[in-house]
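In the laboratory, one determines a bound structure by crystallizing the protein with its ligand and collecting diffraction data. In a computational setting the workflow is compressed into a single prediction: the sequence and the ligand go in, and a structural description comes out. We illustrate the idea with cytidine-5'-diphosphate.
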Amino acid sequence: MCGLKKDQIYQIAIDGPAGAGKSTIAKLLASKLAFTYIDTGAMYRAITYKILKQCIPLNDVHAMIALAKQTEITIENEHIFLDQEDVTDLIRSEKVTKGVSTVASVKEIREEMVQFQKCISQHSHVVMDGRDIGTVVLTEADLKVFLTASVEERARRRFEELREQQPDVQLKAIEEQIKQRDYVDENREHDPLTPANDAVHIDSTSLSIHEVVENITQLFCEKIKKESVEKLVDGR
Ligand code: CDP
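The predicted complex, in structure-token form:
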């Protein structure tokens, strides 16, 4: 697709706030381009799951860091393994969702995760989504996207997602939870959620998933063509 070079590794970074549709879109995009999809939020969720399971209080930073250092996280076929246990579904619980931003604000935990994320993006073409991908993890990505939507629309989408498994879930409560998580993610000291200077902003409030995927595919193809022409012109 769009003239990818055989000897080059391509990277697409997608960042944005909670519920903007990053993971659905990144997954579809990766499948369309035959790239590997990497969900970095799942890694922070996995370590949060382990911390909660071991009853470590979320204000015991030393214990959380020590635990993270003894933890093995792997990803295989879009399933996430925590010390070899498949935790793909377990990390989506409400308890984990509530605690994850606190865990993700710990510098040493971020360093472990970022190192791992950089490592796994060295060997295959990737679409990676998260909060700091364009600014910290894949600073040289071929394309950086900052995906947003209004908070009401993001809450509505999450509500629809959760309603089947949790019939008594409340839309207002989800909206509050999303606002709270955005606040912590945007205001933390280390690698806060912020668009990279060279990111393309896409507001998905009134766009379908298909439209966003098409839009990003087109942007990526244009970028690749531009880079190829620039290399030819420069004789690089
Ligand atoms: O619920 P949603 O899919 O929007 O979030 P997620 O991608 O599963 O990420 C869960 C949480 O992990 C975020 O709210 C952030 O606190 C943290 N995170 C992060 O700090 N850095 C990343 N690269 C990815 C996630």
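The first helix runs from residue 22 to 33. Keep in mind that any predicted model is a hypothesis to be tested, not a measurement.
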